[in-house]
Design brief:
This protein is α+β, with helices and mostly antiparallel strands. The protein has helices spanning 12-21, 34-45; strands at 5-8, 23-28, 49-55, 61-64, 67-70, 75-81.
Length: 98
């Protein structure tokens, strides 16, 4: 179950969404559906998931020497959790004026 959630996405945009809207952004397995993502996050992190938005960005071409290929495809999930709850592994101190 842990390998279904690949890693959290920490950028300036996701950092702002975390503090304003209680939204966490993760890259997840492409085959997961929204109900499956909800079950995984509620079991792994013990939080109440309110909504999930997902998108699959277009694949990017890469080139190594003469060989061409594509980067692996991934699904990005933006998860909104209940106000007052947090994912304890991603709790950050608020130091930025939003």
């Amino acid at each position: 179950m842990i390998d279904l959630v690949k890693y959290p996405v920490i950028t300036q945009k996701t950092y702002i969404a975390l503090f304003k809207n209680d939204q966490y952004t993760f890259d997840v397995d492409v085959r997961l559906t929204k109900p499956q993502i909800k079950k995984v996050f509620e079991k792994l992190f013990n939080v109440n998931v309110i909504s999930i938005n997902t998108h699959i960005p277009p694949r990017q071409k890469i080139r190594v020497g003469l060989a061409q290929g594509f980067r692996p495809q991934y699904k990005r999930a933006i998860i909104t959790i209940k106000e007052g709850q947090s994912i304890k592994y991603l709790t950050l101190k608020k130091k930025v004026n939003l």
